[in-house]
Amino acid sequence: MYKAPSRRKNRSRPAFTKPNLIPILDAVFIFIFFLLMSASFVKIYEIPSDVPILTSTPPSKKKQLALTLSISNNGVNVLTGVPSKSVKFIRKNNEGEYDNEALHRYLINLKKRYKSERGVIIEPQVDLVYDKLVKIMDAARILRQTDEAIYGRSKEGIQERISVLFDQMIFSNISSIVRTQAK
Fold it and tell me: Domain 64-179 belongs to what architecture?
């Protein structure tokens, strides 16, 4: 019987075996599939806010609203005009929360007088919880279907129902920190 030399046996076998990558690739593709499926359930909401713009053009002669909501520990101070003058101070309610309904009603009355105005400056004077800030912003920008209808003229001169209050928001005091938790 013929016996092969030991040198040939060592040469025919590779020095190392290659790992089987198919199970690893299967696991990676399944992981990617589950990541993509879970990403479709996440919704990200954004409230647009503009940056103040400096201009060299002189201000118009038309009386400007220049609405500012100054938020303090005691409530929300509504300021209008240039220079700003306080026109209404809305105190916190009995539970110690900002009275967003009273703010909303007052802003509806302002919108009736200044139908074409859409800008509001949010000026927090204190640290705020994020939810409270968003509720104040919603009171200033959303005109609900249940609110009294306000009609204005479009650019074409057609009378139409106004669908928003003051939705162009600018933050003036960004040094105030918005917290995500209640105290």
Answer: 2-Layer Sandwich (3.30)
